[in-house]
Design the sequence.
């Protein structure tokens, strides 16, 4: 199963395309493309990524993403 960062990145790319992923990278300082999906999430990178999500996604999208992440566990 893919790590949380990869699942978040896939969701943002689906909803906001490459521009959304670029914004996420800029706002979090995390190069999400460089983190292999089969490796554990770096805790600091995941924290920064989750903090940046509120500026990239709408409240509805955040709820949908949270539901998807919870269902993948």
Sequence:
């Amino acid at each position: 199963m893919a790590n949380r960062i990869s699942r978040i990145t896939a969701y943002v790319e689906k909803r906001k395309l490459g521009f959304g992923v670029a914004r996420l990278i800029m706002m979090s300082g995390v190069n999400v493309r460089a983190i292999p999906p089969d490796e554990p999430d770096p805790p600091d990178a995941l924290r920064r990524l989750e903090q940046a999500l509120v500026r990239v996604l709408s409240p509805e999208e955040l709820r949908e993403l949270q539901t998807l992440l919870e269902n993948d566990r």
